[in-house]
Design brief:
elongated, 122 residues
Length: 122
């Protein structure tokens, strides 16, 4: 998803940014967030986990706000964004990924805490 979002936003910014700057700017922002979330999930650690939680929450809010905006006022987005229609063009992955990321990061915290408790009891 990160590679696809980055590729798409770069292509649109280079070819027709002037036609729909808001849509293409939001697609670029989404791409950057996807890359950072992927990095935090791979890196691990408590600081990366917290940063990933914030980014996933921001991503989810972005998908919900922009997704609703594109349905209420389609003329505001002459071109679609990654978040348009809650990620319709990406089989709803943009709305599913932050939810999955939040659940993954929550689970990883629970597992880390449980492991810490087991070590403290040894």
């Amino acid at each position: 998803m990160s590679v696809g979002a980055v590729s798409r936003s770069v292509l649109h910014i280079l070819t027709d940014f002037d036609r729909a700057p808001l849509a293409h700017g939001l697609s670029a922002a989404a791409a950057a967030v996807y890359v950072f979330i992927t990095y935090t999930l791979v890196r691990g650690g408590e600081t990366a986990r917290k940063a990933g939680l914030v980014c996933c929450a921001v991503e989810l809010v972005g998908v919900l706000v922009v997704g609703t905006w594109t349905l209420v006022d389609p003329s505001a987005f002459p071109d679609s964004t990654v978040w348009s229609g809650y990620g319709w063009g990406y089989v709803f992955l943009p709305v599913l990924l932050p939810v999955t990321g939040l659940l993954w990061l929550r689970r990883s915290r629970t597992e880390t805490a449980a492991a810490g408790n087991r070590e403290a009891g040894d």
